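pinned: reference chain
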Amino acid sequence: MMQAGSMKAFMGASTNLKLVNTPMKVFKEAEARGDTEVMKRAMGYVTDFEGNARKDADKLGKETVKETREARKQQEIEREQAIAKARQKNKIEREQALNGAEKPTVEPTETADETTADKKANDSVELSDSGKAAIAEQRLLSGEVDMLVQDAVAKIYFGSAKAQPLEQPQPVVMVVSV
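pinned: its structure tokens
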């Protein structure tokens, strides 16, 4: 999902690229008439708009990387909250099992900022070995897993001793030719 920063940069780059058309038309008309002063002025505007579009494209790349990092941090926080809640629930169940109760009667309190994703994180599903391998491969390719885990997963599923470091995403570059 695009956030405000990347949306603003995207719109800026798009708008500046569209704005190049007007001075280019003026340039072509002046060229047909042989008016070099108007041609120079129009080409100055074209250069300015293209420069602004490049700046916005660079900013878009930086904003996208920044927003991706923030989204991953938020996902990690949500995952940790779900794990903490599951641990709390398991602890209560164990205590009640030790005390002889059949079913837990006390549920952990829910926080106001708990999301549907937190509730779904406690659901469990059994995966086949091929499903686990596919998930591990997807996580490796997406950069979700740190290098130590990558090495272990690569050794287990792919038979190699070392995982290759993942490439960092490159910023989007828009090239405009006139």
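why pinned: Confidence is low (pLDDT under 50) at residues 160-166. Helices lie at 4-19, 21-33, 36-98, 116-121, 129-142, 147-158.
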